[in-house]
Amino acid sequence: METPAPEPSLRLFYALTLPRDISTPLAETQSLLKGNWRAVRADQMHVTLAYLPAVPPERLGELRKLGADLTQNVSTLDVRLRGTGYFPNEGSPRVWFVKVEAEGLAELAANLREGIAALGLATDEQPFKAHITLARKKGPAPRVPPKTFDLGWQASSAVLARSILRKTGPLYQTESTFRFRAGAAEPEPPTPDAPDQPAEF
Where is the active site (predicted)? Predict the structure, then answer.
């Protein structure tokens, strides 16, 4: 009897999702892009708190519990958008983003990363810089002039999401939602969907 092939590892991340009244004007700004930039869909925009590039599927439950434990005492975050920027800032950039600020956001990200490390799982080890990716460069493309935004929202939850790679770009599937100040903060299961139609945000 052949040994079953192991399940592929999961690409997961904790994040804040954006309300429509924030993602819509950001998507409108993408009209300034020229050349080989690939814009991020409005419904896929988010603020990454911690990224885990390779998680064994059987560890997913531990990460759901970690998210619930670390967000149960978190207050609603007053998130504000600032100006746009690039990664890297020098030379040929790969990513165009908008900066994000919120009191308590860096602390939440640090606590999640510490919790992940305590579970013996790896993150991407990149320093936390709160931002929303607007576009990724796929070839020669000019920079967009700097933009600033007088926008913000009250973030009352975070999510644990899965990144599924597609030829057209990554697709994000919500695995659990964690409400801030929600008592025991039990993670909410994702909305049931057809097997090949993951619940997107």
Answer: 46 (proton donor), 131 (proton acceptor)
Give the three-class secondary structure for 72: coil
Would you list the domain boundaries of the chain? 10-179
Annotated catalytic residue, options 131, 136, 162, 179:
131
Q: Is residue 168 among the annotated active site residues? A: no
Residues 6+ apart with CB under 8 A from 38: 135, 136, 137, 138, 169
113 and 181 in contact (C-beta within 8 Å)? no
Q: How far apart are CA 84 and CA 147, in angstroms?
A: 5
For CA atoms 62, 58, 131, 110, the dihedral sign is positive
pLDDT in tens, 54-109: 999 999 999 999 999 999 999 999 999 999 999 998 888 999 999 999 999 999 99
Q: Which of 14, 15, 45, 46 is catalytic?
A: 46
Token duo for residue 57 = 């599927």
Cα–Cα distance for residue pair 175/108, rounded to 1 Å: 19
- Alpha-carbon distance 21 to 41, whole Å? 14
Please say if 46 is a catalytic residue: yes
Q: Which of 192, 127, 201, 134 is nearest to 164 (CA)?
A: 201
